[in-house]
Predict the 3D structure of the following.
Amino acid sequence: MNKEDYKKLLPSLPTDPGVYRFIGADEEILYIGKAKNLKKRIASYFTSRKDMRRKTKRMVMAAKKLNYTLVETEQDALLLEATLIKKHQPRYNVALKHSRPYPYICIKKERFPRIMISRKVLQDGSKYYGPYVSKKRMYTLLELIKELFQLRSCALNLSEESIAAGKHKVCLEYHIKNCKAPCVGFESEANYMDKIEQVQNMLKGQLGAVRKYLKSEMGRYAEELNFEQAQRTKVQLALLENYQGKSTVVNANIRDLDVFTLAQDEKGEMAYINYLKVVEGAIINTFMLELKQNLDTEAEDLLLFGIRELREKFQSIAPEIVVPFEIQLPWSEIQLTVPKIGDKKKLLELSEKNAKYFILQKQKQALAKANKMGKAEQLLEIMKKDLQIDDLPIHIECFDNSNLQGNQPVSAMVVFKNGRPAKKEYRHYHVKTVVGPDDFASMEEVVFRRYKRLLEEKKPLPQLIVIDGGKGQLSAAVKSLKALGIFERLAIIGIAKRLEEIFFPNDPVPLLLSKKSPTLKVIQQARDEAHRFAISFHRDVRSKQFLQNELRQIPGVGEKTQEKLLLALGSVKEVKKANLSQLEAIVGANLAKKIRTYFDAKS
């Protein structure tokens, strides 16, 4: 879309809250956003803002149309936006960075459920708790569950029929008191499920309910004069209290709540949401969510995205959310708190500290990786960041034109792989459809021919195309890429010679890189190499044309005679060397004498 498209749309845009969608070719949804005032929000995409990121400009350019849906309130817009993003996964919306899958504790859906570790959440009716970033904490919790409740670990099918038929026998786990043998009917299903309920309380962090259950069990055993079992339960209660004592307790009076903080990297490309899950005054889980920012995104929107994602991931039903600044929540029943003092403020500071430490660790890892990786990979990473492109420019192709006052127009293309020339892949082109000195039309023709052939031969496209020239040559090349339908699949720039300005499609403001920038040096090298290759090819073409024209200077030698001579002898040089009898055999005695006389006189 351009400003003209926007001006046509402007009169119909409402000032109500709603959700808007930028839609590209083939009805693909590129971006989904919400707005308190649709007219103002959509207008912001078509103003000449210098701070607008290139990705935002690229998204608007790629859009073919814009749709919107009106809603009653801003809260409704938040909910609808979240639903649509989850359904369509637009390319330019904030995206989760895929990290390694953390494990969950699973309560299997089966008779006499087992407790197990799972790295995948399956839609099989089982209950999943987690994910657990700390394996140590997870295994400590599993060991405690094993000590407290003696649940089965076998994979037997414990149906009523199989137990009644006596198909199973007690195993070693029963003899060492790790299981109460429900497989042979020594433990009822009701009693087993009571224990599963307490396991669920533990996994939710509700240790108070578990403690109450163990105390009631200890009292029951004492009343039944089963003092051995009562003593065992007392030991279990001590184990639970010891585990609870090791948890990070903030304040026992604080009810269940979720704490979220936001941190962003220096370049604004990544955002990090730190989450602390607090139950009964203790932090029972922590998590760091990494988000990739594909467009300009407000801090409030990033935090809200993280809150929705994490509460769903951890199945949180906490009635209160603690955040560092005011945001508009889509849930009216949840209390939002921005603390200034007290224990909740300390929790917020702890979360912020975790986020900052995580970013610091990321930077250290990146530095260590940079020290390990080769110079070529470092260079490509720098180029990717400097030019704000999506992929590493491993494969670069650069184009240049050459002609002499419009005569014999030719073009050249050079290829760089990993920042170095790949000379075997250089190509030169005779411009076929352009008459006269038209640099723009020549560029359009050659770029079209190059990538049409790559598409037909199903060969990989480059990650970056460099055009030697300013806005005109760049626009001509872009026209060909759009005609082939590959404009969105790669990056293209133009470099103007005078000030070494880097131009981007449909962006009037050029990028000026430092003269010492390694990115600029690679682009300059590719441009200079394409220029050299184009001039060299043009010189060869002119030389060949001149030699061929020289034969036509001889009286009596026309186009057909020239073709005969070149076909028989191969070149003008060989014609010069040929003796009279050789020439007579090709063109006859009379013309052979004239040719020989001409070259003898010149020599």
The chain has a mean pLDDT of 85. DSSP finds 20 helices and 21 strands in the chain.
